[in-house]
Amino acid sequence: MNCLDKYRSKLVREINRDLRIILTQPEEESVHDFRVGVKRLTALYYFLNRIDPDLKAKRILKPYRSLFKSIGRIREAHIAVHLVQSLDEIRAEDSEILLKALRSKIRRDCRSFQACVRAQPPISIRTPTISSSGISARAILRLKPVVLDELLLQILDTESRMNAQQWHKKRILLKRYHHKMDAFCYCPGHSLDENELKQIKILEQLLGDWHDRVVTTEILQVLEGIEVTTGRAIAIMKKQENLLLGATRIYFDKFSRWHRDR
Prior knowledge:
By secondary structure, this protein is mostly helical. The chain has helices spanning 2-24, 28-51, 57-61, 65-85, 92-118, 130-133, 137-156, 164-182, 194-221, 227-261.
């Protein structure tokens, strides 16, 4: 399907551009953009795999998983730096201690990433075109609403009490739903419901902010030698996590009602 191949080709070019930058210097913007690009590519091939189970999306993407995870550790530390810098409630000297430890972690993670890269052949992201997969445009267009509706049902199926792992899974599903819709941006006749998109972006922001604090808390908990300093920051993060999840529940209820009333 030419419109999906156009999206895929643009995505692969951008991912490899960011990867070339990262291989030289893992600077923050390219690390972020690379990871978003891989998530979009993953959503596309999982969608295609749902239409044709013989495609084996996990096998196609497997060569890049270790690279994605290695870069992910750098990205998480970048996020932690920004969150610590935003904490007005802790003393400036404590903030500097935390930032020094986090920047040291980033340097270690960068060295680990570069070692991971050196252990492999020259890297570039390569995936088969949609045309070469043999999946017909008719099958894609016929099953597109079915696949999206199935994913949406998983997203809207929330329990009264959900743990962190369940919310994290919900966050991943929501992103995949959004990315799958975006994949058709070059396809004739495709349009997004702006009202739905606005609500999705609010939920993504809330869950993203929540997850950033979860990850930062986990990073701070294992920083050695500064446990007393990290305690106050962790307490603030935990409070923020709870507030963000409370807001997320409210917006999920609103999102669910909107879909039921359509």
